[in-house]
Design brief:
Length: 325
């Protein structure tokens, strides 16, 4: 290809033969077609390479890259962006799906409003068969609904992330964004280049979003066009905190694997100083960060992980970007 595409899609994958073909199919039939689809295989040992090479042979928009060794999920996510050429960028997971209009509708919003850096849609949860098992939050503001998040909190997150004020957007990510599906939106590449991309530790997707929030507004399409698949083969379903840390960075030494809350908290703090903010906005962001640190339940979990080396296992675990390659 000689002409740069409007959009680059980065799909990092490791041993994703189970759902990779479905993910590629849903992207290749999008109504918006001016994109390149970069599949970065992190030295898979299953049929992932064969599947991806077959798609690349039949559709010129697909670029397949085979990594010689597994360098970890965090590195692989960032690598797909480093290979990208588009004005816009989207991360995709091998087991998720999206509506065939997802790209077109997100890019339309970004083209219409230069102050937006990220556009995404509401999300729904699908099972291993692709059936929707959970959709939007309850209409009752006090009731816990979609994915354990109340409608009131969801509305608050959307409003804050769409604010003209950086500290309010930062608050929306830090306190109200719980599943972080915003990372699968369509993002301006120029804004992504000013961030640290996806760092090699669990929870880094939220650090990335915190940085991005300080650069511009987020817009959410009020319709479920993104489908997050929860299934038993997901790495995060039964992995310990140490296993998750090594999944993110295989070269990490177990005894030096800091709990993810400590590493991510440092990332949130550093973002305040890395991004171009006024003195007043920086002070307001620091106050929000202080509020975030005072959540007692968080540090109880940190202590538990430090003492046992294990995370908490639940039936439907919190969805983390870096745990799906």
């Amino acid at each position: 290809m000689t002409k740069s595409p409007k959009l680059s899609i980065g799909l990092p994958v490791y041993n994703g033969e189970n759902y990779l073909a479905q993910a590629l199919d849903c992207l290749l039939v999008q109504t918006f077609g001016d994109f390149e689809l970069i599949v970065s295989d992190n030295a898979s040992t299953d049929a992932t390479e064969d599947i991806a090479r077959d798609y690349a042979a039949h559709d010129g928009r697909v670029r397949f890259v085979r990594q010689p060794i597994n360098r970890g999920a965090g590195w692989n996510f960032s690598e797909t962006f480093r290979l990208a050429r588009g004005e816009y960028f989207k991360w995709a997971a091998h087991d998720d799906l999206c509506d065939h209009t997802f790209l077109a509708r997100c890019i339309e919003r970004l083209e219409d409003d230069s102050t937006l850096v990220n556009c995404f849609s509401r999300s729904a949860v699908i099972d291993q068969l692709g059936e929707i098992v959970q959709d939007r939050a309850s209409s009752d503001p006090q009731r816990v609904g979609f994915q354990g998040v109340s409608a009131a909190n969801e509305a608050r997150r959307v409003a804050l992330c769409d604010s003209d004020r950086p500290h309010e957007r930062y608050l929306g990510v830090l306190v109200y964004s719980q599943r972080c599906y915003e990372v699968f939106g369509v993002i301006r590449s120029s804004a992504m280049r000013r961030t640290g991309l996806h760092r090699p530790y669990n929870g880094a997707e939220k650090v990335f979003l915190a940085e991005l929030s300080l650069l511009g507004r987020f817009a959410e399409i009020d319709e479920s066009l993104f489908y997050s698949r929860w299934h038993d083969q997901r790495f995060s379903a039964n992995a310990s905190a140490v296993e998750q840390a090594l999944h993110m960075d295989p070269s990490a030494l177990r005894r030096f694997a800091w709990p993810r809350q400590i590493r991510s908290s440092w990332g949130y703090f550093a973002a305040i100083w890395r991004m171009p903010l006024s003195t007043v906005e920086r002070a307001q962001c620091l106050a929000i960060f202080g509020r975030y640190l005072l959540q007692l339940g968080k540090w109880k979990r940190v202590l538990g992980e430090a003492l046992t080396g294990r995370g908490t296992t639940v039936r439907l675990p919190e969805r983390s970007l870096e745990l799906r390659t």
